[in-house]
Design goal:
By secondary structure, this protein is of the alpha/beta class. It has a single domain, classed as Rossmann fold (3-Layer(aba) Sandwich), CATH 3.40.50.150. It is built from twelve helices and ten strands. A seven-stranded mixed sheet has the order 3-2-1-4-5-10-7. A three-stranded antiparallel sheet has the order 6-9-8, with no helix packed on it. Helix 3 packs parallel to helix 6. The N terminus is likely disordered. The structure holds S-adenosylmethionine. The site of S-adenosylmethionine has 26 residues, from helix 3, helix 5 and strand 2. S-adenosylmethionine binds next to helix 3, helix 5 and strand 2.
């Protein structure tokens, strides 16, 4: 990576928490050696989407504000699946982790003071008990092994430290099903709940809610699904071996939308979809419902 800002700073406080050499390029190489083909596809798609991400991140902004409303985001904040970056005005130092180099390049422009680490949420290159606060907004549903990502959060948190996390769960995007668009399954809220509660947190608060995003047109809705997401399959789809050669688009929440054999390119098919979508229209526009699980835990 050419930009000097992408190298990890010589900040002794940050270097104390790193367990790998402090250079994003090195981290990228090590990371790509270790990443599965699926993760490489996810990383590539998010990298390609980095430039247009800010045009489509309505849902992320909504859930970010839900997460941050009651959070104490001070001290060293670790943002997992940071994307192009989030502002943490009270943080003393921000370490931003993402598997997509393109996202981290964007983050380097948006937040030059952040420490960018190209790494996997399921294998954080950070020392045990080193982080005061972990934040992760709509990223962990991409992990093929959520319990492992959660165990990593627990491992790196200092005793007494907090994590603030949001992710998408089963029951999301029923409108796509109605439109005849096939999509992969998310983990259920009950499963995630059980996985969170299997760790010895001092305290944990878990909430599930529906977040609805509205669009003026079906094309905008579909664009939001592929514009900042990826065409890579979501982890659960891969896990159950349903990856096909069908044209597929997935959104930025780890949700794959596999279109019918006709694909979304055919105009006739698009018109058919548009007619059907209009039956869903409300005063606010065409709705897309997400089930969002947020949790705040103290180690
Ligand atoms: C929907 S974006 C969310 C970005 C940001 N948190 C926000 O609020 O806008 C999800 C991000 O998670 C990253 N991601 C996906 N799987 C990951 C993994 N296993 N480890 C680290 N980052 C991952 C993607 O590259 C992407 O930047």
């Amino acid at each position: 990576m050419k930009n000097k800002r992408q190298t990890l700073p010589a900040d002794p406080q940050v270097n104390q928490v790193l367990t790998q050499p402090c250079h994003t390029q090195q981290a990228k190489q090590a990371d790509s050696d270790n990443q599965s083909a699926l993760q490489r596809r996810i990383a590539r798609q998010f990298s390609q989407a980095a430039d247009v991400y800010a045009k489509h991140n309505v849902l992320q902004l909504r859930t970010a504000s839900m997460l941050q409303s009651n959070a104490d985001l001070s001290g060293i904040v670790l943002d997992i699946g940071a994307g192009p970056g989030t502002a943490f005005p009270a943080a003393q130092q921000v370490i931003a982790v993402d598997i997509a180099v393109g996202m981290l390049l964007k983050l380097g422009c948006n937040f030059p003071d952040y420490t960018a680490l190209c790494a996997d949420a399921m294998a954080l290159p950070l020392a045990d008990n080193s982080i005061q606060t972990v934040y992760s907004n709509l990223a962990l549903q991409w992990c093929s092994d959520f319990p492992q990502a959660l165990a990593e959060i627990y491992r790196v948190l200092q005793p007494g430290g907090h994590c603030y996390v949001s992710l998408i769960t089963a029951g999301s995007l029923p409108q796509l099903e109605y439109l005849g668009l096939r999509c992969n399954a998310f983990a259920t809220a009950n499963d995630i709940d059980a996985q969170i509660n299997s760790l010895p947190w001092q305290q944990s608060q878990i909430q599930q809610q529906t977040v609805t995003v509205h669009f003026a047109q079906l094309t905008a809705l579909l664009q939001s699904l592929k514009g900042i997401g990826a065409s890579a399959p979501g982890p659960r789809e891969a896990a159950v071996g349903q990856v096909t050669d069908e044209k597929s688009n997935s959104n930025n929440d780890g949700h794959t939308v596999a279109t019918t054999a006709a694909g979304l390119k055919g105009r006739g098919f698009l018109h058919q979809l548009q007619r059907r979508a209009e039956t869903l229209r409300t005063d606010a526009g065409l709705p897309l419902d997400y089930q969002v699980l947020t949790f705040c835990c103290q180690k």
